Amino acid sequence: MIGSSRLGAALVMMAMAQTPAAETENPVVVLETSMGDLTVELFQAEAPQTVENFLELVDAGFYEGLVFHRVIPGFVIQAGGHTADMSYREAPRTVVNESANGLRNDRYTLAMARHSDPDSAGAQFYINIGDNHSLNNRRGSPGYTVFGRVSEGMAVADAIAAVDTTTRASMGDVPVAAVVINKATRQ
Hints:
The chain is an alpha+beta fold. The protein is built from four helices and ten strands; from the N terminus they run H-H-E-E-H-E-E-E-E-E-H-E-E-E. The strands form two sheets. An eight-stranded antiparallel β-sheet has the order 3-4-6-5-7-2-1-10.
C-alpha cells in the first residue's frame, strides 16, 4: 500500500504531466514605442486565428517603423498600417472575425481594426483607452475581435492617448509628433 504522502505526490506528478506549461500560458509581446514599452498578453484560446496572424506579423518585423496613426482620447489608440510619413503598409492577409469569443472591448484590451466587412482585419489593431462596449459583438452586429490586453505599460498607453493630434494625409486624429513602434518582439 502506498502511503498518503506518496500517493499525494504521485497524483500531483500525474496532474502536472497532463497539463504542459506551454499550453497554459498565453503568448506575450512587447511593443517598444518611442514613448515607452507596452507589454501585451494575447488570448490564444479565445481568438486563435487573430493571435496567430498577429504573432506572424510580429515575428516578420511587420510592425517595426509603423506609428500610432489614430489617437482619440477616451476611445482608442490605433496602429499597424502607416509609417511616420503616412505611407500605408499593406497587411499580407486578412483573418476571419472572432468577435463572438466572449471578450469585450474594455479599457486596455487589444482588438483588430477592420473595414465594414467583418472579415477584413489584417494588421491594424487598437488599444481601448476606455470601455467601448459599442464595439462588442451583439445580435445582428459583428463586433471587433478582442485578442489581448495590455499587461504592463498602461501609463504609456494613456500618454499616447494624450498627445496632440492633427489632420495629415486626409486622416484626422494623427499625432503631431509621430509615436513609432520601434520594435515588436515575442517574449
